[in-house]
# Entry
Amino acid sequence: MSLETAVTDIPSEDKTTSHVLSDMDQTRLGSHSSVASPQISRTEDVKQTIEELKLKVTDTAQINRLLQCDMEVLEKRVFNRYASSEVKAARTAQQDIGSDQIHIGESSLRLHGRFLGLLQSNTQYLADLAHRCSLSEIDEFLEILCSNIYGNQFNQHEEQLWLLTFLQVLARQFESTREFSSLLRSNSAAPRMMTSFAQRIPGQSYLREVLTPMLEKVLEIEESLDIGPLSIFNELREAGDVSSDPFNLHAAEEHPDYGRINEVAEKRYSKLKELIMTLLQSIFSSVDQVPYGMRWISKQIDLLARLRFQQASKQQTSSLLVGTFFLRYINPAILFPEKYLELKAPLTATAKRNLTVLARVIQMIANQTSQHKKIFIVNMRPFLQSLQGGIASFFENLCNVPDFFHYEQLDHYLSFVSSDNQIIMKPKKLENLKKLVAKYPPRSEALKRSFEDLEDLEVTSDPVMFNLSYEVAKVWWPIKFERSEELAGFLVAKSVLVDGFWANESSTSLAPDEIIASTANSYKRDVYKAAKTAFEEIRTKENLLNVLLDEVHLEVLRLGPYSVHLDQEVLKLEHALSVAKERNMYLRTQIKFLQKYLRASKHSMKHHSPITNVVLSANELHMNKILQYWTFEPHLWPMLYFQLRKTNHNFTLALHFRERLPPLLTFTFTLPDLLTLEEDTINLRCLKLARVPLINMLQRRLL
# Structure
């Protein structure tokens, strides 16, 4: 294959410049302005828009992380009831987001910034740390890794470092696993990293797009979808629809009510099948919307499985991919949608049970089996088998992505790129990270010396409430895999050429060295010089040059039109920003509600003894203007009274008629319900026979 042929293989309108490659001089290398694309102005505007959107999404995501921590503190306060010594610390943590009024030495900040910069770039050590952490330490470390060390989710440089760390964790997992069936077990680091990835903004955006249609249908279903015969029998027995004869799964067909049970199971099965198909159709039709990182990781899992277990069949590797994607990514969002999505209404107990049933069926699909100890139905086997073809096709398309070194447009670093950025981290998290590093020391001398030079952080207030921004020092990013200098240069040249040909889609007649020259202002000087030097060396070796041009040609064809890619990226970022803002609003609303709940509880505990049972006459309620509208005849008032009972945070209001045991009517409220009604300024609540203003009841401290 000649050089001219390699160049002309790339689609172009004018190929007259390709023959002068060998005579290109230094002057021409710098004269790229004359061949600029007519659409360069629009392209630059779109790139600027993309950068602005990335900054907005990243800032919102970081704030959401802090809000999430604050909400968790409040939830622990509400549900776990901190000891009195912890109440102040929990309340202190709910200060305004972004507070950074903290006095700390400049030298200490600088040393910690240098340490974090080295740590961020050392993906080998981070992967080793994830591999060596105990089960009690891994979750905390992954939280620091995802939300702080690689918290800038739309910075290509950090995202690529995160993916490299993930890849090396996977490599260690595969290397240490002896049996194929033991790969990616739930108690190892790699599956937990997959779940952590789903909680990042790109992952949440995709999950929302895919799961919303199915969740809306689940919320509309009022009856249970559990198709287990024993569960159906218990439900029907409670409703009095079947006999009370014992039900034996092993002799189900012999039970006198088996026909009725099977009829209910068939109806539920039809609805369950409809929900599963809705979910799978959303997944299959949105393969292009799956976050690139998830697709790239799936591709690496498939590759590592085939390299490590060469005797494994294609079906086995496919099953591994299906299990990883569904069980570690889709299923957690189905079981706990409130952690990933913004729901229009709280999930009912029935909806939660139905989602659990759906998750079990998804688990059966992931395991490629039609048997499950908690789900039993004959019709499930052919249904699951009919899905295998579509699932196999989906995962084949899922793994069909270009190498990430050439997928992202900005900051192709490899061994030559430097970067300045910030890492935002609470001092408490930093101290926990330092404990892990001390327990599992790094092998890198530079990182080890930097860690030994750290000064203790001396803060003047509770470190829980502050967030420090560490200026990460400029660091030369080393190559993460042991490559020779020649191969490193080859990859840098390939990366720059791919970006150059791709970005200059209207001027693809340019020769490779012209393309490199045209990127002088697009890359940092070190990258441009490295690519230029590497290409000068490669062009002297015909075989290596042919390989380079073939690789560039294939990557450009795989990436598709550059302008279309930019437009799609803008749409994705706008959608991600919308999701992040909605999540932000949801978290702030929850925090406000929990704070109000705590204030109401504290006020009640401080000024009043707990109410367990209060009897109030109708006349007394009417005189105190608590009961405003009354439909009973006046001569019946002395015979009527209200009974208010409290159990935990539930309040039962019952209207009784004297000398009658059962109440005429009963209403049960929870304190959150009452606070919500008060927040919505709902003054009256119709109780069929009586209308009670709930706000007055709260103000009169009856609750």
Notes: The chain has a mean pLDDT of 68. The chain has four domains: 3-31+483-559, 37-98+561-607, 186-404, 610-699. The two ends are 86 Å apart (CA to CA).
